[in-house]
Write a structure and sequence with these properties.
Purple Acid Phosphatase, chain A, domain 2, 6-stranded mixed beta sheet, alpha/beta, 247 residues
Length: 247
């Protein structure tokens, strides 16, 4: 499961009703998620009261969860609080034949994001080492390419061109992102780029509302389904890829 942009707050843009609807919908899923990946903007203003509230809300999801920071999480010195409540901002996680890289794209008190040379070097080194022996997933908050229906283009990764080249050259299977509050996906070469909508922010786009993604992977396909927080099913799309391992 891929979720993003919860914007949990006791005074900001948090839609508590939407989040509670999301929890009810997850409880009713016939097939429970193996893992939940949160692609950032956990809180709205990066302050202590929000992090305490977020920890309490997210513990209701009784599944393994990997969380990467968003630009709102790094406001007001929130980067240190993110590490305190949710752990490292950059890390690598392995489960079965899946290798997941969580990357920290925000910059303190800025909406713009970047991975920077150090993270790019690390990714290149690790992706070269593992080759095609794992299903490779990279997660960061800021979008890598422009997202349709999200208004004037702002805040794409500052080093997006270099990061996109790295991703495509190394046949990364899946890149998970948030930030634009619009669910969307596209396949470029052997890589599928996926944006999640917002779970519980009041600032939604057009009629997209609040939603999350269910991602299913089999021997030949990746299926991505948008689910509204009230349980209504949205768009579903399937992609074939050469690099999926045989399970």
């Amino acid at each position: 499961m891929h979720i993003s942009d919860t914007h949990i707050s006791d005074f900001g843009q948090f839609n508590e009703k939407a989040f509670n609807n999301f929890l009810e919908t997850v409880d009713k899923l016939d097939k429970k998620p193996d893992i939940i990946i949160h692609s950032g903007d956990v809180v709205d203003n990066g302050v202590l009261s929000e992090y305490e509230l977020a920890k309490d809300y997210l513990k209701s999801l009784n599944f393994k969860m990997l969380v990467c920071p968003g630009n709102h999480d790094d406001r007001n010195g929130g980067g240190a609080l993110f590490a305190e409540f949710f752990g490292p901002s950059d890390f690598e996680y392995e489960t079965g034949k899946f290798k997941i890289f969580i990357m920290n794209s925000p910059q303190p008190d800025r909406d713009e994001g970047r991975l920077g040379r150090r993270r790019q070097f690390y990714l290149q080194q690790r992706l070269s080492e593992i080759g095609d022996s794992y299903f490779k997933i990279i997660v960061f908050h800021h979008h890598l390419i422009p997202v349709p229906y999200s208004g004037r283009e702002v805040n794409v990764l500052e080093d997006a061109g270099d990061v996109l080249d790295l991703v495509l050259r190394n046949n990364v299977n899946l890149v998970l992102m948030g930030h634009r509050h619009v669910p969307w996906s596209i396949k470029i070469n052997n890589t599928i780029l996926v944006n999640a909508g917002t779970i519980s922010c009041l600032r939604t786009r057009g009629r997209f509302g609040n939603s999350f993604n269910i991602i299913e992977i089999d021997e030949e396909n990746i299926y991505i389904e948008e689910i509204k927080v009230n349980g209504e099913k949205g768009k579903q799309i399937g992609y074939k890829t050469k690099s999926i391992l045989k399970f």
